[in-house]
Amino acid sequence: MRTQSRRGWVLFASLIAGAMIPSLASAQDRPAIPPIEFDPPRLNMGVVLPESVTDHVVRVRNTGDEPLRLVEVHKSCSCFKNVQLSSTLINPGEDIDATITYEATPLPNMANVALRFEVADYVSMKTFQVMAQIHQPVVTVPSALSFRVDRKKSGNIRISSPDGEPFRLLAVDGLPPNLVNDDGTVKNRYVISYDYEEILPPPYLVVETDKKDAELLPVAVYDTRVAAHERAFQKGKMRADKRLFNLGVLEPGATFHVDVPIKRTPRQGEITCDVLGADDLSGTLEGYWPESPTRGIARVNLELSQDVQDGPQIVPAIFRMGADQTRIHLVFTVRQEASSQ
What we know:
It contains two helices and 24 strands. The chain is mainly beta.
């Protein structure tokens, strides 16, 4: 009886092995990396402004002897808004255009991301590197402040223009900047001091300058107390893919809108939005447009009152759907003369 049982298992194992051998051989026969070359070999966009959207065309060449069929282009981050191929079939010795639409992050960053081209009948994908230095025409060092329990909450920030052109430092958090070694001249580099030892820091330190495209510089502040407070506004599986909206310089009575990318659970539910703690700023949710079962765009229409005071504001807005919620920050400064600039 045991002999028959053992023979049965041997026969079963032989059948399974026989079924697996062709598939293993097939996988081994498949080429590893597709014969693709990119022109340029990698994309270095250099210095780009935060939240700027740019298009770049890359040539994709088939250096092999057989036609290649592109199955999909995989994106390493949501910064790639679109990749448009002129064709999915590349004949030997020919090339196609890949138009890449890239959106920079809202905060300064050294971006090193990638696109991976999947080709039919090939085991591995071909990787295309994309690099960018994301910062304003005026940069801050450090680009963010990190306050932990065991670290002091005071120090200096260097503010400079990479192009070397002088600019004026107007305010920090709405007050005259606390300059270190100020000689009263207009220059291309300043050093300011900050001290949050005794007070709870804001989520962003707001620097104002007169430099074009860098009128408002939010410096993120990471603090254990601020983080605990912020987590209270992040509940469930609802998330804003973009948390900071730098609206720049606004004039009293200005009307505008922001489009907020929202990630949520597939379940149905009405999304609402509340703009908090700002008597001078009113907001209404115009609508939510789903792009997939779990993602969509929520548009919020905003209006500043006519009697709003000059100076920077950090205004939170909360999106809710059932028990889930997420929060964003609107950062801007008000100047009476903004309309005449």
